[in-house]
Structure formats: structure tokens, C-alpha cells
Amino acid sequence: MAVRDRAFQKVFANTFVYNILFEDAEVDERFLELDEDSTVLGITGAGCGFAGMMARRPKRIDAVDINKHHLALAALKMEASRSIDDFGTFYDLFGRGWSPEPDNTVRPVVANLPDWMQKYWKTRAKRRFRKTLYHEGLTAKMLVAMRKRVGMDVTWVRETAAKSEAERVAALVEIVEPLRASFPVRAALRSPAQLLALGINFEQRDRIVETEQQDMVDFFVAHLMRVMRTDLWTNWVAWFAAAGQFNHARPDAVPPYLRQDRWETAQDAPTDISFHNTNLFDILGAAGKHTWSHYTLCDAVDWMDERTQKRLLEEILRTSRDGAIVLWRSVEEEGRFGTLPERLGYADRFERVPGSEVAHELDRTRMYRQVNFFRVAA
Ligand SMILES: C[S@@+](CC[C@H](N)C(=O)[O-])C[C@H]1O[C@@H](n2cnc3c(N)ncnc32)[C@H](O)[C@@H]1O
């Protein structure tokens, strides 16, 4: 790993960056094929995807993240999904990011978590949930400042969602064009602090610039335009960014784990969960053959150089159960050398899950050029 990315990783690992996962977990539900026999290894990020897995009641989950803030939040979402037995209390905590009594709500949820997580939430529950979780963390704080500057709020999102696609794009152009011309805004969007807030390391930034043939400012604008072409009523990531909250008027406008039917199925799930605040490779390296049926890697593969990506595929081949499924996202176009397994010489060992070719088009975050579901070939 390059020195600049090692430094990035060090700062990133100690900063509370995300409070939601910027991935469309509805797409994952469709193609992951999780069931009660599944054993999952994955990177949690802020944990919305892992909390959603609880509704499938898998046998075992190894949840990993180098960032202790993200892992602790993911753990709270996962444990709350199966242990808070009143849906209103659960929805307040993570749908609204708020609790009338944060300490009393959080304490029983974390009672069986590792000691460091119990201490973590003892000192932070009030701070995170007294107003709203969704204004906490680096990305959210950056978005609060952005909304204030451009005048975006719940009313703007509701009015814009009701418009036609062309009108939605026009509404956005009206807001972003003056910003594009502003030197301080351009400088801020290109800065390492901004990359940190978005969780884009330098390796991934270079992949974006190469894929899009654009600098980061044009990339952000093009991305927002793509989001405007989605159904804004149910796009919870768009609501989070533009309104600072979810659309509570629609039960299908929140991440799946926050929907009543998923919460009901997740109640008392017997899943054996281990939390690992370390690098994914440490957990892979310590595991034996036939350990996991599923690997979910967010877009962390983009953070890796080619040598590390190869090591990852080797470790998956070594530790996977027959027919295991691997999920990862990428900002990169597949390009002329094809998929990651093709490019690295593993085409005969990983095959795309049938039907999942459309997954990146379904992902309403519009952040990724690839949403990959591959099966390990026998
Ligand atoms: C890659 S980031 C990107 C953002 C992600 N797409 C999202 O929506 O949240 C997601 C998470 O991966 C974690 N991460 C990255 N590389 C890792 C590694 N090698 N081992 C463990 N965690 C890692 C980061 O700490 C972060 O919480």
C-alpha cells in the first residue's frame, strides 16, 4: 500500500465518519441468498447492511472493520434488531436517530457485547442519540454545512421528489452551478479532508478520476445528477444527504433493517456474532478451510492495490465453503480487462451470480459502476 494510503487508513480508522451505509441493501437482499445455514465474513461500515442480515437469521457472522466507531455502531444496529422488542423504540433509535432516554435504551442492547463496546456506548449514547445520530459523524457534519449553504432541506426534497425527472435535474442544476464556479468550494471538494468525509482513499480517488475522465468536482456533480434520476421518494441515501433524515411517510423509504417485517423476523435471531476491530486480512489469515459461505466487502476492494486484491481472492478461495458468494462494489468501470477475477487471472474460479448483472443499475445510491455478486466455482 502506498504511503499516502497508509496515512489515510490510520486517520480514517480513528475517525467517526459514517452513520449510515451508502449502499443499497435492498439489492444485497435480492442476490446474496442468505439463509439460516449461512456463515458470513464482511466489512461492516456503519452496519445497515449487516443489521439487515439479521432478518435472515444466519448461523454465524464475523463482522470486521478497522474503524472502531463504525464497528461499534454496526454492533448496536445488529443487536438492537434482534433484542429491542418494541418496534416504535427501535424505529426511534435508528429511523429517527433519537431516543428519549439514550442511556436506558442502549444499555440493555449492548449488555452482551465485548467490554470495549459497552464502555464505548456508556460514554457516547447520550451524545449520539440526544438530538439525532444523523447529524453526527464527519460525513453528516459536512452535509449539514452543505445544506445550510445551498438551502436544501426536507421541504426542498419533498417538492423536488414530486417533479418530473427533467425538472428534478433542473432543480439540482440551479443549486450546483453557482457552487461549481466558486473557487473555495472547488478547493474544498478536492481536499484530503473531503476525501476522508466521503471515505474515498487516494487509490480509489485515482480510480474515479480514471473511470470518469473527470476531476472530483465534476464527479460529484455527475453523481448528484444520476441520483436525481432515481425515485426520490424512496431513495433513503438521497434523503439522508439532502434532508438530513429519512422519509418517514413511506415504510419502504428506509434501509431494509428498519422495516417492520424485517425487524419482526430478526427478533431473537440465534446468530453467533463476533466483532473484530482489525484488518480483514487478520481474520482471513487466522481462518481454516470451509469457513464462510458469504463475503461482503463494501467497496474496500477499491482501497487495495492489485497485489492486495490478488491476496484477497486467494484467501477467499482458501477459506470458502462450496458455492460461497462474494459481494463487493467498485467505483471503477469493468474496463477492457474485464471483471476483477478476469483481470487478475481467476476467471475460472469466480462466476457471476445469474441475474446479478443488473445489480449496479438497481443500486439507488448511484455511487458504483460495479455491484458484484460472484460465486466461488467448485
Ligand atoms: C471502504 S469504506 C467505504 C464506504 C462504504 N461504501 C459505505 O457505504 O459505507 C467502508 C468501511 O470499510 C472499512 N475498511 C476498509 N478497508 C478495510 C480492511 N482492509 N479491513 C477492515 N475494514 C476495512 C472502513 O473502515 C469503512 O468503515
Report the major sheet: 7 strands, mixed
Class inferred from helices and paired strands: alpha/beta
Distance between termini?
Answer: 31 Å
User: Beta-strand percentage?
Assistant: 5-15%
CATH structural architecture: 3-Layer(aba) Sandwich
Overall average residue pLDDT = 92
H-E order: HHEHEHHHHHHHHHHHHHEHEHEHEHE
Count, helices: 20
Label the overall shape. globular
List of distinct ligands in this structure: S-adenosylmethionine
Number of separate strands: 7
CATH class, named Alpha Beta
- Which stretches are low in confidence, meaning pLDDT under 50 for 5 or more residues running? none
**Rg calculated over all Cα atoms:** 20 Å
Find the CATH topology: Rossmann fold
What does this structure look like?
By secondary structure, this protein is α/β, with parallel strands linked by helices. The chain has one domain (1-87, 152-378): Rossmann fold (3-Layer(aba) Sandwich). It is built from 20 helices and seven strands. A seven-stranded mixed beta sheet has the order 3-2-1-4-5-7-6. Strand 1 (39-43), helix 3 (48-53) and strand 2 (60-64) form a beta-alpha-beta unit. Helix 8 (138-150) crosses helix 12. The longest helix is centred in the N-terminal third of the chain and has 16 residues, at 68-83. The chain is globular, with a radius of gyration of 20 Å. The model has no long low-confidence stretch (mean pLDDT 92). Bound molecules: S-adenosylmethionine. S-adenosylmethionine is lined by residues 12, 18, 21-23, 43, 45-46, 64-67, 70, 199, 279-280, 298-300, 303.
